[in-house]
Specification:
Blueprint lengths: L5 H13 L2 H4 L2 H5 L2 E8 L5 E3 H9 L10 E11 L2 E10 L2 E12 L2 E14 H4 L6
Parallel strand pairs: 1-6
Antiparallel strand pairs: 1-2, 3-4, 4-5, 5-6
Length: 131
């Protein structure tokens, strides 16, 4: 991880929390991490907001992909109260490049924007552990 500002450290901590399946399945825990104006562009190009993402992740019939592993995480403090993170994830052989913006609020650092772009499978590029 590059960048050692307290903001980068807090954003990394928050991002790692979001990789936890227990956090992703809890509306209460998601509310502690997602900014009220949260937006995401997923791998299909669909745009999500905080409410639709929370409803999708916490639905009783929501797919549970299992744990994700993160690698090559880097962060940069872009200004007062704004951090940008990039990293790769692997889950069940699916790889994605990820980019997130974190904003400092009265409630702490919250995820404001996220985008994921798939880039192959572990069969195409090796295991997620060596990425």
């Amino acid at each position: 991880m590059t960048g050692t500002s307290p903001g980068v450290a807090a954003a990394v901590e928050g991002e790692l929390r979001l990789l936890d399946p227990a956090v992703r399945a809890s509306a209460e825990l998601l509310a502690q991490v997602l900014h009220p104006d949260y937006r995401e562009i997923d791998y299909t190009g669909r745009v999500w907001d905080r409410d639709t993402m929370t409803a999708s992740l916490t639905a009783k019939d929501a797919p549970r992909p299992g744990p994700m592993t993160a690698s090559r995480m880097t962060g940069a403090q872009l200004g007062d109260g704004l951090v940008h993170l990039t990293y790769d994830t692997e889950t069940k052989g699916r790889l994605a490049h990820r980019s997130s913006l974190w904003r400092l609020t009265d409630a702490g650092w919250l995820l404001y924007f996220h985008q994921a772009t798939p880039f192959g499978t572990t069969e195409d590029t090796g295991t997620g552990a060596d990425r």
